[in-house]
Amino acid sequence: MNIVLGITGSIGAIKVPELIRALRKRGHCVQCMVTSGGKALSCVPALEALTGNKVWGPEIFSSSLAENPYAHLTLSQTTDVIGIIPATANTLARLALGMADDLLLTTVLGASCPIVIAPAMNPKMWNHPATDHHLQKIQEYGYTIIPPVYGTVACGDEGMGKMAEISDIIAFLERSATPQNFLGKKVLISFGGTQEKIDPVRFIGNGSSGKMGKALAESFWKRGAEVTLCEGIHQVSVSDTRFTIVKTPSAESLLKAFQEKAPVSDIVVFASAVADFTPSVPAQQKIKSGGHLDLTFSPTVDIAKKLAETKMDHQFFIGFSLETENAILQTEMMRKAQQKKFDIVLGNNVKNLGEDTAEYVLWDTHSTHFEEIAGAKEEIAEKVVNRTETLYFL
Ligand SMILES: Cc1cc2nc3c(=O)[nH]c(=O)nc-3n(C[C@H](O)[C@H](O)[C@H](O)COP(=O)(O)O)c2cc1C
Predict the structure, then answer these.
(1) Same domain, 352 and 370
(2) Full domain range(s) for residue 10
(3) How many structural domains is the chain composed of?
C-alpha cells in the first residue's frame, strides 16, 4: 500500500517512527506530511531516513513549486490511504470546517482515497463538546476515526485521549484498502483453552495458544465484519478497540456466552479448545497436599452440537477437529460437520499447538476433496476466510 502519513502537533508524534518501521516491515510505502505543529514535534531527518522519502512540510507555496506545483492534488492520486496520525484537536477542527490552509489539509480536501484519523490529546480536550462536534462532522464526511484509548497522557492526566495502539492503527490503515465484503455481518469466535476447577486454586485445562482464533478474528474484521471474541485462556494479545471481548474461562461460561451471542451472529467460529470433561464435584476448599487424589469427571455440554440444534439457514459455522491418529482425521472431520452442522471444518494437528505456523486440512460441505494448507496462521486464516466468503455469498 502507498500511505501518506499526516503528522500533526501532538506529543503522540513521538510514536510515528515506530509506526513507520512496522508499516515498512509489512511491505508498505510511506510518505510523511507534517503540519507546523507536527514539524515542531517530529525529527524530520529521522522520518526521511525511515521512509526513504522526503518529508512534505506544511507550506503549499514551497520553494520547489516549479518542480511540482500541484503536489496538493497529485500526491493523493497515487495514495491508497491518508492517515492523520496523530491528529490534534486543532486539526480535527480544521478538518471539520474543510479548511485548506496547509499542504496536509489541502491534500485531504482534494483526495478521493480513504482518510483514517487517530486523534491524540489531553482528556479534557478530548471531552470538550467542540471536539465532539468536530468528530461527528468528520465522520459524516466518511473519514474513519481510530478511537483513542484510556490511559495516562504525556502531561500526567488520566482519561480518554491517548493515541490508539500501533497495532490497531496498522489494522485500520490496512482495512481501509480492503474490500469490505463482510460489512454488516456479525462474527462470533471462541478462542483459547478452557480451565475447569478442581478446587479454588487448581484446575484442569486444555492447551490452546489462541493464535489461530486471533488470526481468523483479524481477517474477518479486516473485511468489515463486527467481531465478538469469547476469550478462554490464551497466549496472545487481542485488541479491545476493534473486538468486543467476553471472558469465557470455563466450558460452562462459554456455553452461556454462545447461547446468548450465537443467535444474533451470522458466522460462528468454534476455535477454542473446550474441556470435554469437568470435575464432577469441585472442592470448596483447597485440597491438602500429600497422599493420593482421585477425581471423577462428568462430560461438559458439547457447545457446537447444542447450537447446531437451533442453527438458522443464514448462519455459517466453522469448526475444528483435532486427532492424534491421522488415519481417522478425515472421517472425524466429516462426522463432526454432519453432527455439528459445520460448513467448514479444519483438521488440526497436535504439532500446530502454540506454533506460529501450522498445517491444516481444509474441508467444506461443498468440497469433493480435502485440501492441505500450510503456512503462517495469518495466511491460513486468510484462506479460510476466502473460502467462507465464497460459500457464504453463494
Ligand atoms: C509539547 C506539546 C504537546 C502537545 N500535544 C498535543 C496533543 O497531544 N494533542 C493536541 O490536540 N494538541 C497538542 N498540543 C497543542 C498543538 O500542538 C496545537 O494546538 C497546535 O496548534 C496544533 O497544530 P496542528 O494541528 O496544525 O499540528 C501540544 C503542544 C505542545 C507544545
Answers:
(1) yes
(2) 2-176
(3) 2
> Once rounded to an integer, what is the mean pLDDT over residues 255-267?
98
Contact between 191 and 180 (Cβ < 8 Å): no
Ligand 1 centre to CA of 44 (Å) is 17
Query: Are 55 and 141 in the same domain?
Result: yes
| pLDDT, mean over the chain | 95
**3-class state of residue 225 by DSSP:** coil
Q: Atom 16 (ligand 1): residue with closest C-alpha?
A: 9
Average pLDDT over residues 159-181: 97
Nearest Cα to Cα of residue 234 among 247, 252, 221: 247
Give pTM, 2 decimals.
0.93
Is 345 strand, coil or helix? strand
Domain shared by 216 and 297, yes or no: yes
Q: What is the CATH number of the domain that holds 119?
A: 3.40.50.1950
Q: Position of cell 496523530?
A: 86
DSSP reduced 3-state for 36:
helix
Residue 386 lies inside a defined structural domain of this protein: yes
Distance 89 CA to ligand 1 centre (A): 8
With 80 as the cut, is the pLDDT of residue 38 above it?
yes
Of 32, 43, 155, 230, which residue is the catalytic one? 155
Label residue 63 by pLDDT band (50, 70, 90).
low
155 is known as an active-site residue: yes
DSSP per-residue codes, 158-179? EEEEEPPPHHHHHHHHHHHTS-
Could you tell me if 253 and 349 lie in one domain?
yes
Mean pLDDT value across residues 319-333: 87
Atom from ligand 1 closest to the CA of residue 88: 11
Question: Quick one: 151 and 194 in the same domain?
Answer: no
Which domain-ending residue is among 109, 144, 176? 176
**Which three cell numbers mark 377?**
496462521
Mutate to test the pocket of ligand 1, among 11, 128, 149 (most ligand atoms within 8 A of CB): 11
Ligand 1: distance of its center to the CA of 109 in Å? 21
Task: Please list every protein residue whose CB sits less than 6 Å from any atom of ligand 1.
Answer: 8-12, 35-38, 88-91, 120-121, 125
Q: What is the mean pLDDT of residues 289-308?
A: 94
Cβ atoms of residues 284 and 198 within 8 Å: no
